[in-house]
Design goal:
The complex is a heterodimer of chains A (323) and B (327). Helices cover 37% and strands 20% of the residues of chain A. Chain A folds into two domains: 182 residues, Rossmann fold (3-Layer(aba) Sandwich), CATH 3.40.50; 125 residues, 3-Layer(aba) Sandwich (Rossmann fold). Chain A is globular, with a radius of gyration of 19 Å. Chain A is an alpha/beta fold and 323 residues long. In chain B, the strands form two sheets. In chain B, strands 1-2-3-7-6 form a five-stranded parallel sheet, sandwiched between helices. A two-stranded antiparallel sheet of chain B has the order 4-5. Chain B is globular, with a radius of gyration of 19 Å. Classes of the chains: A alpha/beta (323), B alpha/beta (327).
Amino acid sequence: MAQMKLVEALNSALREEMERDERVFVLGEDVGLYGGIFGVTQGLYKQFGPERVIDTPISEAAIAGAAVGAAVTGMRPVAEIMFIDFITIAMDQLVNQAAKMCYMFGGNVSVPMVIRVPAGTGRSAAAQHSQSLEAWLMHIPGLKVVCPSTPYDAKGLLKSAIRDDNPVVFIENKITYNLSGEVPDEDYTIPIGKADIKREGQDVTLLATGNMVHYSLKAADELQQEGISCEVIDPRTLRPIDYETIINSVVKTSRLAIVQEACRTAGPGCEFAATVQERAFDYLDAPIIQIAGMDVPIPFNPKLEKTVVPSVEQIVREVKALF
Amino acid sequence: MSKKENLNQWFYETMLKIRLFEEKIIDVYARGLMPGLAHLYIGEEAVATGACATLEPSDYITSTHRGHGHCIAKGGDLNKMMAELFGKKTGYCRGKGGSMHIADTSIGILGANGVVGGGIPIATGAALSSKLRKSNQVTICFFGDAASNQGSFHESINFASVHKLPVIYVVENNQFGISVHQSRHQNIQDIADRAVAYGIEGKVIDGNDVLAVKDAVGQAVAKARSGEGPSIIECKTYRWRGHHEGDPNQGARYRDPKEIDDWKKKCPIARFEKYLKSEHGYTDETFKATRAKIQQLIEDAVEFARSSPEPDLEVALQDVYYEGGRN
């Protein structure tokens, strides 16, 4: 085991997959010489050269489409879209092309590609560089959507995403890049579609994604002091969703609080809440609550920015109100 | 007849296949045998035929919503195509794609496409892939005049130029973006002029002359294979039918029927027949015999499609994710 930052874990996943499989290559804006705007591709250009670590023009539709075309012709591209906000420009290629090809071509075409997208708040990057758009992507049959919260999960899931035969959107909560954690030295993968119980508890389930996993763990510590035992679940994959783990937890705890940075209306929490109440209604002792980002664009000022997304204090307060 | 055995005969048979396939669709569509939409290629046969004549089976094409001609010219199976148009189990996509989504990657057809300009980035990616694999394959990317106004056109061609990708962008300028004439959707006459903006070569040719298409695309293919990067070949042509078969009176709302008649006089097939007669001793008899042979293939395809079963309903839930391939 080595201590590693999440950004380093992603980097080592890319490096090892490129060493293992020559079909794997990286493309995107500033991923080569510069090493990626957040440093995820640092050193790959030097090791693998400009053909396998491709600096592209600032052309998100072409980046995504080039990945699609390469994927259907035998390669395994890993494209970086610099911020999830810019995936809007690549949506046709992702939603109408990559996600549909296997199905509409009768099951005869695979599209093994990964699109990595840094997302979320915390850097005063304002309204066009801070969004959490995972619900857009979760809505599309044919895509897989992955969102790790720890270095261990990030590395294992990125390897699985690269080895998957389907288009995978890999969401990296950018405020978690510098989080450290233990990562095995040997090759390992984490299956897509499997949630992880980050903390076991009895009284309430906190279902949290990305950086909100860490906020929820802190909130769970505080709530423990007050006698409330929280189970914290990270779904890790947002499509397909591991409902078995989530439902089992809710059956045990009888309460569910969903914690997400994405804004509330038609966000991921709406999907979680709807399905859990369908499948576990009789086990619930309180309404399912969503502790979510507010329905506003992300503001620039750091204090304003903090105000519109959930905080540890807010999680503690709202969970306490369930009892 | 294969390209290598007798190229002229292949040109003729391929253009006729496309024409008779499409004429048959007019009929089956009107009879309600075919659900959905049908965007027909009649009048533009020389473009797909001339362009695909320059390709090896392992080379790639991306196609459009008006894609039957491209698929036939690249070697698509008429039975599977027709069955797909009928939505049948035996179709290319098991009845899940229809007219706008025929693909056969085993012969390099990376898919027709329902989005105008949607195939341009994909073709660019296929070319990137063959460059990385050093496979010496090229990709022909077909699209129409209206697609040249999409961002995907500009983003992709710039990308391909910077990375010197082996791709040939073949513009089928049939003069209409659905109902809007080219003069009303862009302020240039020659789309090939846009090549200058990306530092690549652009050429304008008569898209109803199969030999001219083959020569121009062939040169661009040779250039692409030798690592000299992409080109734009603009083929001036015209669609005889409406945007799709539901477009009333072949587009009478937005064009003069006389214009259609004038272009019918420039029919690419009649023109090639004239050439075969004067230069290669073909006679009306040989044309008639070929036509009868191709007509039979089309009738067989319709019979195959008509008599094929509907897909099982559980097929609707399969293939959302890849399950290892079906064929």
